[in-house]
Amino acid sequence: MDAADRNVFLTPVEYLKGIGPRRAEALKSEMGVFNAGDLLNFFPYRYIDKTRYYTVSQIRQADADVQVVGRLGPVNEVKQGGRTVRLTAEFYDATGRVELVWFKGFPWVKKNLVTGQQYVVFGRPAFYAGRYSIPHPEMETLEQHRSSPLSAMVPVYPSGEKLHKSGVTSRVVALAVASLLEVALPRVEETLSGDVLRSEGLMSRREALRAIHFPKDADELTRARYRMKFEEFFFMQLALLRRKIIRQGKLTGYVFDKVGERFNTFYHHHMPFELTGAQKRVVREIRRDVSTGYQMNRLVQGDVGSGKTMVALLSMLLALDNGYQACMMAPTEILAMQHYRTLSRLLSDMQVRVALLTGSTRGAQRRQLLEDLRTGQVDILVGTHALIEETVVFARLGLAVIDEQHRFGVEQRSKLWGKSGYAPHILVMTATPIPRTLAMSVYGDLDVSVIDELPAGRRPVRTYHRYESARLSVFGFMLSEIAKGRQVYVVYPLIEESEKADYKNLIDGYDVLEEYFRAHGYQVGVVHGRMKPEDKEAALAHFQRGETHILVSTTVIEVGVDIPNATVMVIESAERFGLAQLHQLRGRVGRGGEQSYCILMTGNKLSAESRARIETMVQTNDGFKIAEADMRLRGYGDLMGLRQSGVSNLKIADLFKDGAILEAARKAAQNVLFSDPDLLSPANAPIRAVYDGVLKGRALWSYIS
Ligand code: ADP
Ligand code: MG
């Protein structure tokens, strides 16, 4: 492409037809439209269907806008007290007459409308005083209409008060785009290969760009949008997949080819239960990964209670058997301590040294620990984010397990690689039930394993919604469960903004429970973020040993806490929690063989959205359904670390609604890379050009030129 061609797209908006400096200013500041290229990629957000024409007699059947061809009768002024209050005109075709009415803009009407002339009117009919009229119709002479680009599906562009005031109406934008397309379209280049276009049945980029502004009909619009969405997904997936290929080429993984003594001893002598089929499958997938010589980057997705910890433990034993250390990182101190306890207990009869490192490991103890780590005397290190601090140096870290931290991005993962100067295998475990399509984009460079089976004998948790007013009967229910030997969590919301009031609620709630249940001979414990780590640990330990019957807490127990004897989860002010959180909290019960219950307590007044959340919880235990509902309610913007995944750069595609297109695009990208991993073949030149540019930070759409 030569410079002249490129210049078309770089033309500042003020020089485009019908724009000028004033409108250009508004377009720049409000919409980020600076030049012709930007304008071409400023897509309509809806369309008015003007493909259908009505006769006057059909107006009565219309329930929306109508478009009618007819002739204009004489214009009448209706006066009151000497002032014109409205203009009316008959408009007629062979089937009848309808009245057109104006309540303002009289001079324009009088100056521009010609009695006897043929017009196309467009507007929403009103029924008043026994007859139909069309107030403030859009009018075009039939002749104008026939030559107008705006006579099929009319684009409606995003607008706003400021744009409107500056005269940037949807019509102004549409006309500017129309005239720009005439010169620019022939210069628009294809971004996909002929192969991809053919096999996916896609429109060319030129066709799509025209049709997305001025579709002939709804069908053409769908195909145009499909093409543009496909392209966005295609390049996003291409980048993710290429990243993976490059990483695999660059990083040699350790080869864990022995299933040795420790794995076998544990598996055959110390495992407290039989693995589920899904756990076995995932362990196999991991074993295959770590034996290839490539660095493993695997996400293990499994709903709450599916048994991810055991999968982690077995993987860590593999690392140990091959002469490496392993670490396991948890998002909270409570969870880190629990993992530490669980692993220590499970491995107590074996020659494995497990250690714990958190923010509260200090002083001499910490120094000794770091020393033992460096000299390789610690086999498994469990901890919080403290694990990725500079000072933590492993002798030979072979595997890092990251538990319940879907926000742990590529960058942070690579910090772990940096730790030892080489790249350990990485296992990310999450209960966040990410629909596959999302997983593909968020974790596009990870392989995904799914534990889609719960251990045998689990019964689905029964969930109920109760109002404040039913508190006493809820207490009664708690009593009856405790009498059967079970335990109960009572969780209070806690957010920073209302921290003080929230703590007060929790403490008040604790006092009430304490008094009520002590009278029945039961103990109530409490755990929250303001307590010292050792006190938290003690409170949890009491509960775990069954010495307390009820544990009142904040969401510090949200993730991972595993106490199978607890069968009742009472969530106070449940309307204040998000769906993902509610699901995680509910996952704290239903972990043993007993029937478990989740009780969502709310005030009487609920917003529509809170009600929808509560109802979703009551209706389903399925994490995937909950995640989908969550996205419907909240949008996926700030969900699950999506921001860092490039998803927020999507301009037209919608991750949630366009899952099928995403899958098609990902497959296509895989096919291209499979036969041409470095995109060197001439046929893939257009793809290569865009890919290189995107890596350099060019926006995808700028490839109109
Ligand atoms: P999560 O996937 O939520 O991290 P955990 O690893 O904490 O789940 O496991 C939940 C509970 O199920 C634990 O008490 C664990 O010991 C138990 N468990 C895990 N796997 C099995 C299994 N195959 N059979 C029976 N119980 C299991
Ligand atoms: Mg867990």
UniProtKB/TrEMBL annotation:
PROSITE patterns: HELICASE_ATP_BIND_1 (PS51192), HELICASE_CTER (PS51194). It catalyses: ATP + H2O = ADP + phosphate + H(+); Couples ATP hydrolysis with the unwinding of duplex DNA by translocating in the 3'-5' direction. Residues 484-637 form the Helicase C-terminal domain. The keyword DNA damage applies. Keywords: ATP-binding, DNA damage, DNA recombination, DNA repair, DNA-binding, Helicase, Hydrolase, Isomerase, Nucleotide-binding. SMART domains: DEXDc, HELICc. GO terms for molecular function: 3'-5' DNA helicase activity; ATP binding; DNA binding; hydrolase activity. This is ATP-dependent DNA helicase RecG. It comes from Candidatus Merdimorpha stercoravium.
